[in-house]
Design brief:
four-stranded mixed β-sheet; 2 domains; Glutaredoxin; Peroxidase, domain 1; alpha+beta; about 190 residues
Length: about 190
């Protein structure tokens, strides 16, 4: 039996690639990205919309009508509006978050950017974020977009993930390492 997460990611990749190619051809990558983000925000804010998108109980027609009405109300038209309608007609709305993520990754790759997932013990201010971006740019040689998450349990320091690489300078990890080494000695 096929792994459903691989199936979903494959579907999302195909849709994201198609949308990216169409947006690139139409020179509307930024507009499509903003509209997709706007629609994602609508999904995040509404449990009813999440249910509509994720549930197989709703017919393709119901999903299409709802998405069309929402897109029209949010002033999402043109390429993005048509794309959302096609996704709804094909009953693939449940993969929309993965499609949007795939689209963002393709845009970043096209622009020569990489995304760093950063977990910090506290919120970073603008100066700290810029310094972190500059340091990561010197390491990667590419423009780095920082996606920050706050986790107070780290106590201090950062965990930075770029692609398959991870750098963990958190105080929590250092204390755990020290604790283990003290157990080995004693």
């Amino acid at each position: 039996m096929a792994d459903s997460s691989n199936l979903i990611s494959g579907v999302a990749e195909r849709y994201a690639s198609s949308l990216f190619e169409l947006a690139l051809e139409a020179k509307s990558i930024d507009k499509v990205g903003k509209e997709l983000a706007s629609f994602e925000a609508m999904i995040d804010k509404s449990d009813d919309l999440k249910r509509l998108i994720e549930s197989p109980v709703f017919s393709a027609e119901d999903q299409f009508n709802a998405v069309s009405a929402l897109a029209k109300k949010a002033k999402i038209s043109g390429l993005t509006g048509n794309f959302l309608n096609v996704v709804a007609q094909n009953r693939r709305l449940f993969v929309l978050p993965a499609i949007a993520q795939g689209f963002r990754e393709l845009v970043a790759r096209h622009r020569g950017e990489v995304t760093a997932d950063v977990i910090s013990a506290h919120e970073l201010n603008a100066t700290q974020t810029k310094e972190l971006q500059a340091a990561l740019k010197s390491v990667t040689g590419k423009t780095v977009a920082v996606k920050l998450t706050v986790d107070p349990s780290l106590l201090g320091g950062l965990i930075v993930k770029i692609g398959s690489r991870q750098i963990d300078t958190s105080l929590r990890t250092k204390l755990s390492t020290l604790k283990l080494s003290l157990k080995e000695v004693g």
